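Encode chain A's predicted structure.
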Amino acid sequence: MPTSRRLYLLRHAKSSWDDPEQRDFDRPLARRGQRAATRLGKAMKKRGPVPELVLCSTAARAQETWRRIAAELAEPPPLRLLRSLYLAAPSRLLDRVRTVDEAVGTLLLVGHNPGLENLAAQLAGPGSDAEALARLTVKFPTAALAAFELDAPWSEIAPEGCRLVGFTVPRDRE
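Encoded structure for chain A:
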């Protein structure tokens, strides 16, 4: 069992508003979002992280974000699609992370704002990267990725219980 764990919080890529009649849940990615997700997949393949498990909202834009990332990876990790992650509050997201098998050392959660952004801000505790935290608290745009380390079991993850070690946005990957 790993002693240090990594948690990645990924906001889905930019969604399309081309069809104003389309339900929010069903909106696909915009072209800009498609490009951003593909670039993130290429960056993960080249530099990491490649998570051991992915928990992803069942909303179309979140699933498409992950599919485009996974298409760039040699061996995509197991995926769990969870309706409960759609527009979830930070407390619900945190509860879901607490149920992850302790054998998993690296977890990626693909979700939505404002829950994801609020969770990221809540998790950042002592030892967090000050510049990354400042950027994260100003804006958590689509396709942004927050990286955390924690030295506790998933079941004990708590507000201020992680170190924010990185925060990237799409323009950082261009």
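Helices lie at 31-47, 60-70, 90-97, 115-123, 130-138.
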